[in-house]
Amino acid sequence: MKKTAFEKSIDPASQTLLQKAENEGIETAWDRYEQQLPQCSFGQLGVCCRNCNMGPCRIDPFGEGTEKGVCGATADIIVARNLLRMIAAGAAAHSDHARDAVLTFKKMSEGEAGSYKIKDEAKLFSLASEYGIPAEGKSREEVAVELANAMLLEFGKQNGPVLCTKRAPGVRLRLWSELGIEPRGIDREIVECMHRTHIGVDNNATHILLQGLRTGISDGWGGSMIATDVQDILFGTPEPKKSTVNLGVLSLEKVNLIVHGHEPILSEMIVEAAENPELLELAKEKGASGINVVGICCTGNETLMRHGTPIAGNFLQQELAVITGAVEAMVVDVQCIMPSLGGLTGCYHTKFISTSPKADFPGTVRMEFHEEKAYETAKEIVRAAVENFPNRNREKVSIPEEKQECMAGFSVEAILNALGGSPDPLIEAIAGGAVKGIGAVVGCNNVKVQHNYGHVNLVKELIKNNVLVVTTGCNAIACAEAGLLVPEAAVLAGEGLKGICEALGIPPVLHMGSCVDISRILVLASAIANRMGVDISDLPAAGAAPEWMSEKAVSIGVYVVSSGIYTVLGTIPPVLGSQEVTALLTKGLDSVVGASFAVEPDPFKAAKMMLEHIDKKRKALGLK
Ligand code: XCC
Ligand code: SF4
Q: Which residues bind [Ni-4Fe-4S] cluster (predicted)?
């Protein structure tokens, strides 16, 4: 049965464009998903292996057929190995993004990337001191070069621990060290995952999963954390800002340029280039009233947090944005960019511009982006968008009305600021019961479930029950579209949380950034745990990824749980083909790292599970 536009998404703007797509005979991810059905059940259960050329092998999950691969690998081994490869890929994506950010920072410090500057000097010096770099008598550029070199070492280090793990509470660090899952070096852990999953290496599911935890930790407390830190130095530590979201941010009169992907190295420059007077003049000449830069996915979150740049949508809205017929350029770098955009942009006048030396797609114009000439390239990209404006076919244009105000930019620094400089007021509110606990809700969209339904309903349930929500990634965009990221949304919160939000003038859902910025959530959790003198696993806190789909989300889930935070997944991970792995993830991990996973597609039930967990933790702390 074909789904209707209403069944595909809860968002009215998206529904309108899904309808337009159907009328115009344009294919979207939802159509391709339907064409894939029924999806392979071996794949869904995680029991197929292609790790060597004696395969592919698959295990009969009902125990009626074949129970072992050619090499003898069982379902447990195959599922665990596949999961480890997912973690490795996710950690690699975040960490390679971090590496590029550090390399840009290094080039900038050495005077080779003149388009970039140090925007947060205080953070530069505080990080230098954390990395043990003396600053006396040195210029800030000298300090920056040394810091960049020290950060680069974190990737290739052979004997850890990865430095930022020290930000975790002492008890947590000791636990990791006792378990032998303290990451040694970011690249080392990822490489070891690939080695261990080669035929005939690691064939013990528990042993394989422990390496998964270590790799996840090297992402959350390593790669992702370094990405956040360096980006704050280069582009500024976010502070609360107002902006607007949803497809209605696209403009009828202006040149629309979308930045989509993940690295602010690109999007920051585009935002700057779009303010260039010469290009603004050119836009006028071409009949446009200005240049409208908007974001999609995490690069959108990055520029939203720092500049208040509007966001057109989250992962499943990337195709819909093009379908408005009003986009002059879709400019992409890496991660979460659908290759379908090539064919799709071909149906409209939209230029699909790929910029990363690492990532190309069918149907793109390549405008490779290098730090040395960042601003020049950004200007060329903006110029290409502007020059494309006269090609817009007015008859094909339909921009939905929906746009929603939001407030974003809640870095840890900004949250502490809002609290008057220390986490104490929040801790008191938690202790007094006005705030029951903290919910971290993050992650992607997934066509398997109704777009934004899980995100929005789960978060609404949590705030209604006085749980303060922190969010990043595509969940943050979903919440923004649903109007949850404004201080006025406090009316949807329970009495206690409402009072706190009104007193501080903050929304009940705090947008903390992109997916690498989940590292900010870890730092916040550490700050609270340290102040309370407990471990993160003792906090009345829970995590969720209601609509996750990417391998990065798997790595995130793993490091969040490894850090001690119970996490509910809304879509089912491909592990059910192994009872051993499933039991480890959903129960066994509890006795290892003090937290585990649960799977619950229904957001109302998921919220209930999180609330029960939070209550349990409150009781254990002696709170009512
Ligand atoms: Fe991608 Fe970061 Fe997932 Fe969204 S939340 S679909 S990973 S953009 Ni990161
Ligand atoms: Fe089959 Fe083993 Fe090769 Fe995997 S590693 S494809 S299970 S023989």
A: 262, 298, 336, 444, 474, 515
Q: Based on the domain organization, do 282 and 380 belong to the same domain? A: yes
Residue 1 has pLDDT above 80, yes or no: no
Q: Which of 71, 81, 197, 201 to mutate to test the pocket of ligand 2 (most atoms within 8 A of CB)?
A: 71
* Neighbouring residues of 577: CB distance < 8 A, sequence distance ≥ 6: 42, 45, 46, 47, 59, 61, 75, 78, 79
Residue nearest to atom 3 of ligand 2 (CA): 52
Whole domain around residue 41: which residue ranges? 5-58
Query: Tens of pLDDT along 561-613?
Result: 999 999 999 999 999 999 999 999 999 999 999 999 999 999 999 999 999 99
- CATH number of 541's domain: 3.40.50.2030
217 alpha carbon – ligand 1 mean position (Å): 19
Residues 540-552 have a mean pLDDT of 98
In a shared domain, residues 306 and 181: no
177 and 229 inside one domain: yes
Given a cut of 90, is residue 121 above it in pLDDT?
Answer: yes
Residue 66 lies in a domain: no
Determine whether the annotation assigns residue 262 to a binding site: yes
Long-range contacts of 607-612 (CB under 8 A, 24+ apart): 607/457, 607/458, 607/461, 607/462, 607/465, 608/461, 609/542, 609/568, 610/439, 610/462, 610/467, 610/542, 610/544, 610/566, 610/568, 611/436, 611/462, 611/465, 611/467
| Tens of pLDDT, residues 93-114 | 999 999 999 999 999 999 999 9
**Which ligand is in closest contact with the Cα of 203?**
2
The pLDDT confidence band at residue 27, using thresholds 50, 70 and 90, is very high
Residues facing 441 on adjacent strands: 471, 544
ipTM of the complex: 0.96
**Nearest atom in ligand 1 to 475's CA:** 5
Nearest Cα residue to 255 out of 218, 208, 288:
288
How far apart are alpha carbons 549 and 270 in whole angstroms? 28
Domain identity same for 261 and 158? no
435 within 8 A of 427, measured Cβ to Cβ:
no
Look up residue 623 and give its two tokens. 């709170």
Interval between CA 53 and ligand 2 midpoint (Å): 7
Q: Counting atoms of ligand 2 from 1, which one is nearest the CA of 56?
A: 6
> Strand, coil or helix: what is 407?
strand
Evaluate whether residue 525 is within a structural domain.
yes
Q: Residue 193: which CATH number?
A: 1.20.1270.30
Among residues 501, 620, 563, the alpha carbon closest in space to that of 216 is found at: 563
Is the domain of 259 the same as that of 355?
Answer: yes
| Burial degree of 138 (CB within 10 A; 0-12, 13-18, 19+) | middle
The CA angle 350-353-358, to the nearest 5 degrees, is 150
For the CA of 76, the nearest ligand: 2
**Domain membership flag for residue 554:** yes
Average pLDDT of the residues in 21-46: 97
Statement to judge: residues 147 and 115 lie in one domain: yes
How many other C-beta atoms can be found within 10 angstroms of the C-beta atom of residue 134?
A: 10
Whether 523 maps to a domain, the answer reads: yes
**Separation CA 517–CA 472 (nearest Å):** 7
> Is 248's C-beta closer than 6 angstroms to any atom of ligand 1?
no
